[in-house]
Structure prediction request, 174 residues.
Amino acid sequence: FKSEVIYDYVIHLAAIASISPVFNPELYSVNCAGFENIYRNVPCRKFLYASSAAAINKTNEYGKTKAHNEFIAKSDTLGFRFFNVYGHNDNGVIGKLLLDNPKIYGGFQTRDFIYIKDVVSFIKDNMDETGIIEVGTGIETPLCALPAIIGKKVEFTGAKDYEEQRSVCFNPIN
Prediction:
């Protein structure tokens, strides 16, 4: 792909989101090669892109792809390190909680959740910045508190070290 038009802004948000520890060639093809294709071949005055909080520690393949993109991007670009974005038709943690009879093992780990409309507003308000900006609420929410927040019955079963070592960490609301 090569464009002859010079755009004012390119906002690249496409990626495969996966926290699997297993190497996935498609993840690198889409998240790295796809990023580089857009970054190098679409002329623009300002390039903005989705990174992730996972790029900070690079503990999974997804985080490594996002860290790669941050390394490739020049200092006049803007990367957004999104934390846990949720919204309509969510396929992340909150979306899974809305399914029938979900089960969560553990639940004591925390996440910083941010609503998609807040993310869109943040992007619009910061389009002329440069560098890398972390985008979250700054509020850590334990996973075992989410059902009470969204009003859903969920079975929690303590840390999943072994199938037989289950214990309840959350008393679901009625």
The longest strand covers residues 44-52.
